TrEMBL record:
MF GO annotations: NAD(P)H oxidase H2O2-forming activity
Protein name in UniProt: Ferric reductase NAD binding domain-containing protein
Coiled coil (residue ranges): none
Residue ranges of the region described as Disordered: 15-46
Presence of the UniProt keyword Signal in the record: no
Pfam families named in the record: NAD_binding_6
Lineage of source species: Eukaryota, Viridiplantae, Streptophyta, Embryophyta, Tracheophyta
Record has rRNA processing as a keyword: no
Annotated keywords: Oxidoreductase
InterPro entries in UniProt: Fe_red_NAD-bd_6, FNR_nucleotide-bd, RBOH/FRE
Domain Ferric reductase NAD binding: 1-169
Length: 187
């Protein structure tokens, strides 16, 4: 899934480069970048970048797992000035949000994030949540924000969650004007 996020970041960079070139008058009939993400269709203007919004949910038991992709998470936080990628980190080994035992961690996390812009759990600019996401609320929010749209849901993880996520995609596709297409890769 990180490769998908990286592809979106590369497409955003290419689009920004192209727009900057056009603004500075260097955009003529060709693009200054040789990036493979900046390919044009014959006779078309601009990049072929279609992604309008991406929601990335990373659920892990171990805090140290966030270290693997710290660089890309910080890059997204720094470069995504249009709000294309919304990132959510969930650490399930910590008590649930709202639990009295996690209040101190949440308070330290908020203070550190406000003061330094860095999350104490993930070590990135992306703020971490505790426990597992409420997937029904996730689908509901996306359906409300993207009425009459087609949304791809891509899941990579343990098979146990596949059934729930597929069922929610089906339920929300039938109950709302948003159509969810579920795809999975289990390990």
């Amino acid at each position: 899934m990180i490769s998908i996020v990286k592809d979106i970041v590369n497409n955003m960079k290419a689009k920004d480069e192209e727009e900057n070139a056009l603004e500075s008058g260097n955009g003529g009939g060709h693009t200054p970048s040789t990036s493979p993400y900046n390919k044009r269709k014959p006779g078309s203007q601009g990049t072929n970048f279609k992604t309008r919004r991406a929601y990335f949910y990373w659920v892990t038991r171990e805090q140290g797992s966030f270290e693997w992709f710290k660089g890309i998470m910080n890059e997204v936080a720094e470069l995504d000035n249009r709000g294309v990628i919304e990132m959510h980190n969930y650490c399930t080994s910590v008590y649930e949000e709202g639990d009295a035992r996690s209040a101190l961690i949440a308070m330290l996390q908020s203070l550190n994030h406000a003061k330094h812009g860095v999350d104490v759990v993930s070590g990135t600019r992306v703020k971490s949540h505790f426990a597992k996401p409420n997937w029904r609320n996730v689908y509901k929010r996306i359906a409300l924000n993207h009425t009459d749209s087609r949304v791809g849901v891509f899941y990579c993880g343990a098979p146990a969650l596949t059934k729930e996520l597929r069922q929610l995609a089906s339920d929300f596709s039938h109950k709302t004007s948003t159509k969810f297409d579920f795809h999975k890769e289990n390990f």
